[in-house]
Amino acid sequence: MAPIDPIVLKSLADLQPALYWLDADPLEPESHSALVGDVTTDLCIVGAGYTGLWTALLAKERNPKREVVIVEQRETGNGASGRNGGFCNASLTHGFVNGYTRFPDEMAVIEKLGRENLNEIEATIKKYNIDCDFERTGELRVAVAPWQLDGLKEEAIARNETGDHVEVLSKEEIRKRVNSPLYEGALHDADGTALVDPARLVWGLEKACLSLGVKIYENSKVEDLIDEGSQVVIKTAYGQIKANKVALATNIYSPLVKSARKYVIAVYDFQLVTQPLTKEQLESIGWKGREGLSDAGYQFHYYRLTKENEILWGGYDAIYNYHGKVRQEYEARPETYAKLATNFFKTFPQLAGIKFTHGWGGAIDTCSRFSPFWGTNFDDKVAYVLGYTGLGVASTRFGASTMLDLLDGIDNEATNLQMVKHKPIPFPPEPFRFLFIRLTQWSINRADQNQGKRNLWLKLLDRLGLGFDS
Q: FAD dependent oxidoreductase domain spans which residues (predicted)?
């Protein structure tokens, strides 16, 4: 590791490798019992994160008489749903440019569905009185190099032509909103992003599901799915569930449908949280609009203010471990914390002296097109959605709704999308997968340092339809 600035070292001295959102929160619910014995249900959902909970909630809202059971291998929200940055973004395609590159003819519809989806999330939070610090403050994507601003201007034109309403801010305008010496301009989306406490959103959705009669079993890892003709048997260590339909909401954990495994890999993302900012520190950076922020580079940071005016700062590094293994020891990475802190103080040098209190990481389910994909199995009795690539706080609701549509045989605007009908290009097997990802990450880093110019490897990926942008 390269020498680390003393300011950075001091800022990390008291960091706890702990998940900020779970730090003694009084709203954390009681745990649920494991599945013991035999259960029969209309719909069984595997996974109690955002996708699973949204699937259960929507299923009961559409048909209150439908029996719905959720089975979770650990506890509700244990995975990515409880450890993300809380950016609830309207995009269903991991950003407009990524979606426009892959689905140009559908982008107007996809963007419309994304905005409707975010509106429905806000309505659900109000309907069920979910206390999750929901703030629809919008987003600022900031250019930290001139070439990035050129890209934001092009994006703004394309987005507004598809029905979005975004504007480009000059260097002077963005620095009046948020004061950083790095900013060259920004793309402002006033209402396309909300900020939430992600863990409280999970718990609120869980409470809403329980109020509608959904049954939840925790600490019950599914060991096998067996097709029995008219039903599917879901086997766990101490019991089994016989269900007419099964929705798989397993995120990065090994897909129970083996044919889906080649499409997803686990990439680890990391975050830090500062001490609460003093009044003087807040005044030094502005940020009165409390927007969510992200950089416009291929490698980017995302950051936001919490309810207590701490700054959550994450992203940039995306760590792939050989064979894509998901392990608890991968959730802390001191070298990444140092990189994050170094870039934090480059962005906000006026905050020198502030300390970071929490640092953690989590696995993201990434696919080669960086946006969710769907599939069915067992004669359409089983459906799944995977591949959110880290921007899933809002898109999981759309993913769940569309998965439920596929199970129910509904023909609508969502299920007719090519985005829904087709899967991404699969990843190669190891060791080629590891080499492929490492070469791509090295090339993306070079592109960021070379005014966004993509080398021959990235151009080849673009031609193949992979188009790695982040």
A: 42-398
Output the pLDDT for position 136. 97
Helices 392-408 and 50-62, axial angle in degrees (round to 10):
50
Q: Is the separation of the CB atoms in 187 and 141 below 8 Å? A: yes
pLDDT in tens, 351-364: 999 999 999 999 99
The conformation of residue 275, written as its DSSP 8-state character, comes to: P
Q: Round to whole Å and give the CA distance between 346 and 222.
A: 46
Task: State the number of CA atoms in the 13 A half-sphere of 420 facing the CB.
Answer: 25
* Mean pLDDT score of the chain: 93
Superfamily for 37-86+199-263+370-421?
FAD/NAD(P)-binding domain (3.50.50.60)
Q: Percent of the chain scored above 70 by pLDDT? A: 98
pTM, full prediction: 0.94
Phi and psi dihedrals of 126, rounded to 5? -70, -40
Nearest to 207 by CA among 133, 134, 124: 124
Residue whose tokens read 């209402």? 191
Which residue type sits at 86? G
Output the CA–CA distances (angstroms, integers) from residue 223 to 42, 46, 148, 227, 240, in the order listed.
Answer: 20, 11, 47, 14, 10
Q: Which of 186, 185, 182, 179 is nearest to 351 (CA)?
A: 179
Tell me which amino acid residue 307 is: K
What are the angstrom distances between the C-alpha of 166 and each of 43, 140, 159, 295, 336? Answer: 40, 10, 7, 16, 33
The 10s digit of each residue's pLDDT in 406-418 is 999 999 999 999 9
Residue pair 149/185 in contact by the 8 Å Cβ criterion: yes
Question: Helix (H, G, I), strand (E, B), or coil: what is residue 26?
Answer: coil
Domain-wise residue ranges, the chain? 6-24+135-196+264-366, 37-86+199-263+370-421, 432-463
Residue of 20, 24, 457 lying closest to 275 (CA atoms): 20
**158 or 28, greater pLDDT:** 158
Instruction: Tell me the CATH class for 6-24+135-196+264-366.
Output: alpha beta
Q: Which helix (H) or strand (E) holds 278?
A: none
Residue 313 near residue 332 (C-beta atoms within 8 A): no
Instruction: Report the distance separating Cα 128 and Cα 57, nearest Å.
Output: 11
Whole-number pLDDT of residue 434 = 87
